[in-house]
Amino acid sequence: MLQSVVQRDHPQASVRLQCRLLGVCRSGLYYQPQAVDPEQLAQMRRIDELYTAHQSYGSRQMSGHLRREGYPAGRDQVRRLMRKMGLQAVYCRPRTSLPDYRVTIRLGAATAGGFREVSWRWAARVLCRCRTLATTG
Question: How far apart are CA 68 and CA 7, in angstroms?
Fold first, then answer.
């Protein structure tokens, strides 16, 4: 860590100058990490146990299950802890970014670019007209 290189009692270079030369934020020098609360560790352990049993539980179901067991757990807290542990509900998500294969068809039209996309409605109209012309004529 570059924070350990900074000398706070240097006679010529201030802390501000040293941090600027090293490219370190001064706020990082004064940060003291907090110890994790034992209750929170127990809650995280229980979330992990529930997740291995029910991987489809999201933060809403997980918080409801924890509240029924006596843990004081709100949805936002459970969501934060699940995100911290890297847990995410497993379920079939909507595939909204994939194109629908029924929307367009490709016809080998003689255009400069080769193939062109044609909508189903246009193709159906053209085919219906060709069939009616073939039967009448």
Answer: 52
Per-residue model confidence as pLDDT tens digits over 113-128: 554 555 666 666 666 6
The amino acid present at 77, given as its one-letter code, is: Q
Flag whether pLDDT at 74 surpasses 70.
yes
The Cα–Cα gap between 99 and 95 comes to: 9
Q: Do residues 55 and 89 lie in contact, with contact meaning Cβ atoms separated by under 8 Å?
A: yes
Distances (CA, A) of 43 to 20, 37, 50, 53: 41, 10, 10, 15
Question: Where would I find the beta strands (DSSP E) of 73-132?
Answer: 104-111, 114-119
Which residue reads 């509900």 in tokens? 89
Instruction: Please compute, for residue 118, the number of CA atoms within 13 A of its CA located in the half-sphere on the CB side.
Output: 18
Would you state the structure tokens that stand for residue 44, as one six-digit string? 């995280």
Sign of torsion over alpha carbons 48, 34, 69, 73: negative
Task: List C-alpha distances in Å: 34 to 29, 31, 37, 110.
Answer: 15, 9, 9, 70
